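cache lookup: miss for this entity combination. No prior model stored, computing from scratch. Input as submitted by user K.M.:
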Amino acid sequence: MINKIKKTGIRALLYFSMIIYSLSIIMPLFIMIMTSFKSNAEIFNNPLGLPASFKFDSYIRLFEKANYGQYFSNSVFVTIISLAIAITISAFASYALSKYQFKIQKFIYGYFIIGLIVPIKLGTIDIMKTMLSLNIYDTLASLIIVYIAMAIPLSVFILYDYIKMIPDELSSAARIDGCTEHGIFFKIIAPLVKPGLAAAGIISFIPNWNEFWFPLVLIKTRDFFTIPLATGQLFGQFDTKFDLVFAVLSLASIPVIIIYLLLAKQFVKGLSAGAVKG
Amino acid sequence: MKKIVLSFSLLLISLLAIGCSKGTDSNVTGNSGVSGDRVKIVVTSWRTEDIDRMDRINAEFTKKYPNIEIDFQPVKDTEYDAQLKQSLAAGVGADVIFLRSYDSGYQVYKTKSLMNLSEMLPTLKTFPSSALAAWATPEGVSYGIPSAGVVHGVYYRKSIFKKYNLDIPKTWDDFISVAETLQKNGETVFAQGTKDNWMLYEVMYAGLGANFYGGEVARQKLLRKEARMTDPNFVIALEKMKELQKYFPKGFQAVDYVTMQQMFGTGAAAMFMGGSWEIGIFEDLGGLDDVGYFAPPVAKAGDKLQYCFHVDAGIAANVNTQYPNEVKIYMEWLASPEYAQLYMNELPGFFSYTPGSYTLNNELAKQMQSYISDSVPTVRTVWEGLSAQDPSGNALVGEAIQLMYADTLTIPEAAEYIDDGLSWFYK
Amino acid sequence: MLIANKKHWKFLFIFIFPAFAVYTLFMLLPILNSMRYSLFSGDGLALNEFVGLDNYIKLFTEERYYSKFWNAFGNNIQFFIIVTLIQNILGFFMAVLLTRTFKGSRFMRKISFLPTTLSVLVVGFIFKLILQPYPGVFDSVLKAIGLGKFILPWLGDPNSALVIVAVAVSWQFFGESVMFYASGIDGIDDSIIEAAKIDGATIWHEIFYIILPSVLPIVSIVTILIFIGDFTQFDIIYAMTSTKGDPGYSTDIFGSLFYRTTFSSAERGGWGTGMGATVATMMFIVVAIGVAGFLAFFNRRKEALN
């Protein structure tokens, strides 16, 4: 009997803390989205509750006058291209490093891994200069290159293990059949390592999509703004108009939230694999 | 093997294509711009509040020159200077640039990224020389059209003043007793906060403090290094600022500039110490019928008003613009009385320096201007020269007053804080 | 694993080179180059003249420089400590709770990671707006639950601003640590815990003698990631308290100091590119020492546990 009371007590406590925790996560997001539908006057009179009516004026204004569609397509473009290239070249390197034994193989792997703890921000001054001399400062290409570089260490780190786990017998058999080394990669390794490629892509997606520092220093023309930079700039421009500001924030968040809710399992699997292994 | 090389080079080519496409694009339009195609000139400023109003002004220009479109792209004031500096250093950025006065703008000019306007715009010679000097080198080369000046003073809610039968205060003692009456009756006296410290310096210290530290004469002494911020007159001005603290709203430390505008603009407070540039903001927020204005109260009856008529905005042109011809046409228009009148209509509270006779259509702007004739004009205390390096006088005064209001520094310590920071100036 | 011979060289080179080159040219080399710039004077992006260690001497002997540098360093340490306490310690206990089986545990694990998917900038802006006294969203929540007297000028008070900013960052990345720890706890063999339970071990025994030792490697990763993230954090300061670290530099940390000194005009706190590079180099040194320190510390703990 006593045991049972104690247990229900603990249960109650557990649920209580879970409710607080989930409210602390959901409330700010809920307020953000609800406020974006209110009028400026309503925000001051009724900051917490539901909007009297859902008005989409601020969203319409963002797309029609503030060119939001452009920022969205810029972000999609930069993210997809940079992730695709980063993961492709990382897969090449990981294959060469994990399936062949040569003198400096360990050293090169370590060289890539250092990148996991190197803050690339500290090289910003030189990156700006390089982009200027390549004549791509203030273009999406400058962002793409930086994001490729940023995604390489983690991708190599993940793909190295995925490729290593593929049994050597498969490739030796192919080799006996006269398959070339790169042929082995494309015909045997690549199809088998698809989950690894997906994991690497998913993990780099969030930091890449949300990255604010490099657009801030590399992009000056509005036509090339990505969503985070547009968020920062529009927030400054509309700061007296709360409905618009919250609409800006909602627009920046909703796509990632949806993608996460759809792919939650993969996100968690990919990320925790990295953590446990390390 | 071939496949790999091919696929990799394809990736590289596509990357380069993105980069080049931008370059070629702009070259094409750059050349064809001369031949009569539509050209877009980008204008940047720190006045994010003015997007709609500037768009209306620029629409008038485009009506006249249909092949030139003006795109007004302001950046938030606190981040404006950093963004501007980066763009110009990289040789990109807006074609036409709003520039702050004196050293702030001069630093930009020294990076060789602004056009020489003395040659481009002969009409500049007719502008008042004191305004020209704010955007010119010591040798007199102009790099900015003196566009607008602003004044600092106090806004009030007519209805609240009427409710308690209050008169417009002329002296500081009147001012304090008005505040006292309002507070006793449970009104929010000032829509003032200390989170954005530039307000504390630019509007409060330079605007209301000038009557106490001795206005323009004292400022000139500072510039000549004959006076220091720890001198009694400058400290008294700090004390006067501190006197106002007890009339600030609850939680004033968290109230930032935007919130102040919201509070006063929606009628939630009786007074607001602000600048003339806020007329438009208050018009948008709740209308101007109930808004009145008076100049900074003087120390004692009979004193001459030291009126902070600050050289606020100049307009410069980027040397790296792709459309020098169109920029020239636009700049000529910006220096014309036509623009000046449009500008003052749309943005009441900005007073144009362009010679000409204008009608002010805004009552508040008229009132602000009415004080000028019987006053000694001055500009913000440590703006010129004393803000050439970090830590700049501009930043220091704001920080010191902010810390003074937070009770982190006493009044003499605040003065000391500014003076210490300025040691590079006295070196 | 195949032992590579001569005929493999070309293939290996072609496979490794692209990643190697991009990574070297746009990640490692820029950092080294930026360190080199710290030896030059200069304001714009063009470097002026070689000045040796002058910038470093200036940084540590001139009050206008060292006062800001040490201030940011101190703030950054406080910031890191608060974030670590919340994310690491509270996060660990939350993970222990979430790995129990109860109704809704899967849902909780799913949404706990939600804030991490947002951009830091967005999180900063949301918190800034919610904490503003007018309209006072958070303040009205406090009033509604009878805690009105605890209302502070949150981001306006130099004493509370840094804590609030640190809490905002922790709110965002809390779910990430929870997820890391939860996956570590999931990996513990059930039979070990069962055996301990039969021996009558309490929950505290379980936590300290079974769970903690087995997730220690994760603790070290999380700590190091937080450390690097916090000592280069910028977005949250930009969003919540401006690049000046308002009020009165009380939230100025390394990231904002680096941005401001490098990219701002002199009148707004800029020190010129050479000095900016000097700040970046000092940040790199601090991060390197910190990471090495944590690695050594956790390795020793691990050995002690074994």
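stored under new cache key. The CA atoms of residues 116 and 173 of chain C lie 5 Å apart.
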